[in-house]
Amino acid sequence: xxxxxxxxxxxxxxxxxxxxxxxxxxxxxxxxxxxxxxxxxxxxxxxxxxxxxxxxxxxxxxxxxxxxxxxxxxxxxxxxxxxxxxxxxxxxxxxxxxxxxxxxxxxxxxxxxxxxxxxxxxxxxxxxxxxxxxxxxxxxxxxxxxxxxxxxxxxxxxxxxxxxxxxxxxxxxxxxxxxxxxxxxxxxxxxxxxxxxxxxxxxxxxxxxxxxxxxxxxxxxxxxx
Length: 225
Prior knowledge:
elongated; single chain; Glutaredoxin; 4 strands; four-stranded mixed sheet; Thioredoxin-like_sf; 6 helices
């Protein structure tokens, strides 16, 4: 393990003698890292398309140990700049600040900085869409659980069930996203489609519950007669 990490670090250091390299330290359980991921992928694509001499490397500190002499981070995401064989930890971690710092590093043309800042705005949209998706999936699951409990009389309800649903769904969505490698626009499109599916699922579950309640009321009324 250490030999691999040491070799990786040496490769970055050697490569940085001819190129500027931005290393992003991240963790799978870091929510900010989750939000930034497609944004970082998009920056990488922009740099390649515009022949910008700045490489981006990502390093998961949750799954890998630090190599000897590697810059240590106490939080994520953390951005390290390697240049001329040396590495420095950037103080910036907020998207706008990172873009301003990158702009200093690469001396990008004005339209390039504008493009990067436009992508920053999409991070906020990603967060809002993710919130909507989690909400709709939580509501749908809660209604489904209510339906199940109505039909399985022996099922002893747990008071903590509903409280845990949101956290379970949040965790599962983040875990699913880990395996995706999309750009920020692709991520937004994917979330919008998932929201449509979740809204539909919630509506169907709510209609099933409503129909059952109506049928029960009809039965009660007919029994009275």
